[in-house]
Amino acid sequence: MSNNELFTLPPSQPTPLQSARRALADAERDYAAERERWKENSIELEPYRRAVNRYSELVKAEELKELNNRVG
C-alpha cells in the first residue's frame, strides 16, 4: 500500500460500544454544565440526569454484548 492510498482510505465507523461511550461522555458533560447552571434544581436537571442514566445502561448492554460475542 502506497502513502497515497493510506490517506485516501475512508474513515472507519465506530463500534456500537464506542458510540455508546461517546454519547455517555457527552451526556455527563452536559449534565455537569447544567448542574452548575441550575445549582441542583431537580426539575431542570431531570432530563440531563435521565440521559446519563439511559446512556450508562446502553454502555453496560453493549459491553455485555461484546463480552458474549467473545465467549460464544
What is the strand and helix layout of this fold?
Blueprint: H1 3-7, H2 16-38, H3 42-71
Helix pairs in contact: 2-3
Walk me through this protein's architecture.
The protein is an all-alpha fold. The chain is 81% helix and 0% strand. Helix 2 runs antiparallel to helix 3 (42-71).
Write out key terms for the chains shown.
72 residues; single chain; 81% helix; mainly alpha
How would you summarize what this structure contains?
With about 70 residues, the chain is an all-alpha fold.
Question: Alpha-carbon distance between the termini?
Answer: 35 Å
Provide the helix percentage: over 70%
| Oligomer designation | single chain
Unreliable spans: none
Task: Output the number of helix runs.
Answer: 3
Mean pLDDT equals 87
Silhouette:
flat
Largest sheet: none
Number of DSSP strand runs: 0
Secondary-structure-derived class: mainly alpha
Question: How much beta, percentage-wise?
Answer: under 5%
Q: What is the gyration radius calculated from CA atoms?
A: 18 Å
Order of helices and strands: HHH
